[in-house]
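Moderator note: this is an archived Q&A kept for reference. The question asked for a predicted structure of one protein chain; the sequence and the answer are reproduced below.
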Amino acid sequence: MRYSKSGKFLGCSGYPDCKYIKRDGEDAVEEPAETEHVCPNCGKPMLQRIGRRGPFLGCSGYPDCKTTMSYDAEGKPVVTSKPTEHKCDKCGEPMVLREGPRGPFLACSAYPKCRNAKDVDAQGNPLAPIETGVACAKCGAPMTVKRGPRGPFLGCSAYPKCRSTKPIPDDLKEKLKDILPARKAPPAVEVKETCPECGAAMKLRSGRGGSYFLGCTKYPKCRGTREASPELLDEIYKKSAEDAPAAS
């Protein structure tokens, strides 16, 4: 039994060779361990930490450097957040560039105390208001460009009072190609599995940390999902390796 500012906890008697600790009602927690990976922002070693969603890499230069990385489906580190020169307009703390299911965005480094977040342009800078020239059919307020899981769409600027949405016109789509960051599409592979909920065809989708899963093509009416089989994952990785030279 040991004591700290946070209270008492159980610490392994093999310390410092073993740094596992356990608090009442919690699973064992491992001390951050240095890895062979280096921070892409400052060059310092990355430490493996354990978060709510599992292991991740955090820069050993924290809090001066807030770069974090997650592991993709192949076990390779992928940058999930990196520092920027932008400041939060709500609390003044630095903003970090994160990668989410909808693409990159800026988030306050003071999270969860401050949950401010902003969309970014193709260069990773805060996205300036885009003049759409479209008025809401319900309330007449200007429609603004918003980003969703399936790409950008038009939403009423009077949200949450008005929740009207509509697809983006073709002429505006062309304009957005040079403004919004491109979404990385999953590799083009054949999917033969059907939805376990409705029997419709399934589609390959990308999840957090570069992982892949199968989602129903009738989404959002049907939210059925399946795990990608090992055989399909092998095909995905082979296809990704083939496409890599062309992308560069």
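Archived answer notes: Residues 244-248 have pLDDT under 50 and may be disordered.
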